[in-house]
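Course exercise 7: structure representation. Students receive a sequence record and must write out the corresponding structure in token form. The form below is the worked example handed out in class, using UspA domain-containing protein (286 residues). Read each field label carefully; the graders check that inputs and outputs are placed in the correct fields and that the protein name is recorded exactly as given.

STUDENT ID: A-19
EXERCISE PROTEIN: UspA domain-containing protein
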Amino acid sequence: MSQPASSALTGIRDVLVGIAVENESDRDSPAVGYGLSLARAAGAHLTLQSASWRLYGDNRWISGFDDGTVADIDRRLDRLARAIAERTAGDAAQAGVVCTTETPSLHYPAIIHRLAEQARLHDLAILDALVWTCDLDREAIETTLFKSGRPVIAVPPGHTGFAGSRIIVSWDGSAQAARAANDAMPFLRAAEAVEIVSIGDAAEIRDSVPGAEFAPHLARHGVNVTVNNLPVSGSIGETLRSQAGLFRADLIVMGAYRHSRARQFFFGGVTRSLLRSCPVPLFLSR
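STUDENT ANSWER:
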């Protein structure tokens, strides 16, 4: 029997989980378990896009020289994607969660575009934040954020169940940070403790919209909020990771890609740093 939905989380009505099966070792996805757990907690509808990356016909040089091996790989990956969808649907039924699945077999980048289109039709998308062995993983998160207009929760390995008792809001005074905090409001209201964390030197903190000025907005929405201004230790990403451990955070809420993706690619950035190594799931908005 399903558990009653949290009154605060009832603002979440539908959740999309997107995975892309690239090879036959892609059997365990933290995003799937996390999304199912969140949908159960919120009493929300769960949609799973379990796509397989189809290689055959994607490039003429592959099709011209292939002896049938690539097509056979495509069939095996499609079967694996369908098996994941069937297993998830069964787990959802046992948990009392209404679930729909789709299992497209698509070329790159059609998988990514399909995911972004589907995300527009849901309150949020939940994706894996695994060690990137291929641009497909990075593009799934970035394209969904830039083209769906919806927030994304990026789930690192080891987090197969939703938790949201203690949440950090990374605050730099930007429009992206304000958007992320307001998109995450159902989670913030349901949390036992929320900490606004501003990181920077004295001049940077002084010249931005202070977290102390943003805190009353959250408090008026029933959020149990405190403010913590921190100096940079190493880098902003390292400081935020460290504070997440000290605060025992279940989730970090932050505005994503304040600078362009091109600048982040060449010069690095907080978003990419945390996606590559984060102790807890990231709630991202742009």
